[in-house]
Amino acid sequence: MPGIELGSVIFHRQQAQLERIEDGERWTLPRAEFLVLTQLLDHPGISLSKERLRCGGEAEPVMSGSAVVKAVFTLRHFVGEQGTQLIQTVPGKGYKLGQSVAEEAEPTPKRQVIPLGRISQPVAVGVIAVMALLAALLWWWPVPPAITPIEPNQDALAIVSGEDKAVSLIRVSAVDLNQDLLESIRHQLADKLRDCPSTGWQRLFLARSNDGQVLNLTFQGEADGRTRLRNIKISDFRSEPTFVSPRWLEEVNLCE
When you count CB atoms within 10 A of the terminal residue's CB, does the N or C end of the chain come out lower? Predict the structure, then answer.
């Protein structure tokens, strides 16, 4: 494994050795020197205090403060003239790897170049297989039934007021209302709206939530040439919700 070039020396981490480039001399680092140098290399450009260097990367100190000072001195001595550039003293903070040396020490990530061109046969076969599987799933997967309005003979609500009017009841949700429940809601709303002296509602849209526990009523009409909308939500968390009840009808005003 190639070493890390640090100015005028090469650090062979696996062998715990420093090699001078000028004459090829190698020095097997004592434990303190190795721990100090590796910590500085692992934190390039960052000042490490003497107390932190004493720990050697562990939670508790593994050497004395004087051992750290001695290790820095011997490392600088072996490097020679560039020793103080390799390990710099930061007043009041500790030591750090020199900026220029730190930049050289940082590994440059290798970029994987993927040539563009002809796709290999295994890749092409895999892509075709995935596309075929997706097509099969789309063909097999059940499609929810289309949302259709209530039949014409069911969607008119007769309202007796100053003039005969009809409100079209339209179902617009995929979660269906069974026929009995739909008829019950339709007749109760008709009775309530029939008591209105006047109303501008022309259509009533029914939409049931996906969990089946909420019924949304949207009234649509016109007044003074403008479209009017009113939205009412009814929650019923019983196992068999009915939504519209006589008590609810007493409390709500559907005329306006």
Answer: N
Positive/negative CA dihedral, 146, 149, 150, 153: negative
Which two three-digit tokens encode residue 182?
Answer: 């739909």
The pLDDT averaged over each successive group of 10 residues in the chain (256 residues) is 82 91 92 93 90 91 92 91 87 84 52 53 78 73 50 50 68 71 85 80 82 83 82 85 87 82
Q: N- to C-terminal Cα distance for the chain?
A: 84
CATH topology of domain 4-105: Arc Repressor Mutant, subunit A (1.10.10)
CB-CB contact of 34 with 16 (8 Å): yes
Radius of gyration of the chain, Cα coordinates, nearest whole angstrom:
41
Query: Where are the domains positioned within the chain?
Result: 4-105, 156-251
DSSP-derived secondary structure for 100-149: HHHHHHSPPPPPPP---SSPPHHHHHHHHHHHHHHHHHHHHSPPPPPP-P
Q: pLDDT (tens digit, 9 = 90+) per residue, 218-242?
A: 888 887 778 888 889 888 878 788 8
Helices and strands (H and E) in the chain: how many:
8, 11
Q: Which residue type is seen at 59?
A: A
CATH number of this structure's domain 156-251: 3.30.160
Separation between Cα atoms, residue 71 and residue 74, nearest integer Å: 5
Burial (CB < 10 A; 0-12, 13-18, 19+), residue 95, is buried
Could you give the C-alpha distances from 75 to 6, 32, 94, 185, 220, in angstroms and in order? Answer: 12, 10, 15, 90, 86
Phi, then psi, of 221 in degrees rounded to 5: -160, -170
